[in-house]
Amino acid sequence: MFWTDAALFFPILLEGLRLTVIVTFASLLLSTALGLVWALMRVSGIRALAFFAQCAVNVIRGIPIIVQLFYIYFVLPELGITFTAMQAAIIGLGIAYSAYQSENFRAGIEAIDHGQIEAAQSLGMGWMMMMRRVIIPQAVKIVLPPYGNTMIMMLKDSSQASTITVAELAMKGQMLASSTFKNSTVFTLVALLYLVMSVPLILFVGWLERRAKKS
Questions:
Q1: Residue range 2-214, CATH number
Q2: pTM
Q3: 45-96 pLDDT, tens digit each
Q4: Where are the chain's structural domains?
Q5: Which of 96, 136, 145, 198 ranks highest by number of CB atoms within 10 Å?
Q6: How far, in Å, CA of 81 to CA of 133, rounded?
């Protein structure tokens, strides 16, 4: 019975899985770019920029992701700024996770030996060139393991997009369960699909951590 139902439900859940993957990786790109901006502002040495970035990160971290999604999808249209549910989900998750990415990047940058900064400055490198050629390439090795963990968390938190009507995997599961009353079958399949996506990422993060320790 389980396998018969699973064969019927699987194609429907796969459509939700596709949207989950899109939301996750689009949000990951946005959070990475924005998080790097926050981190560079924090370590720039310019007080006004560092203070602004710190305030922004603290505000973002202090508001639950679901509230940020609601604000973007339901409140901004009242101000004349309208997004589709998918766009709102990507922007909301991207902004929310940029705060955590920022802390990862800042920790990686500040872990680089100060002597290398002095050496780069003695060669006449400006701040941006030093960051691009000396600091960030080395910080990447330090940042990769926590970055991988953030990617796994984002994959799971993509389910919150269902609260603003994005029909990703979790919402597809809810819709199927409510229409068929096959709760155990549907949510077992949903859990298995999340595992299928998460386990390779978990193994990848473990590999990154082992490489980081060796280097």
A1: 1.10.3720.10
A2: 0.88
A3: 889 999 999 999 999 999 999 999 999 999 999 999 999 999 999 999 999 9
A4: 2-214
A5: 96
A6: 39
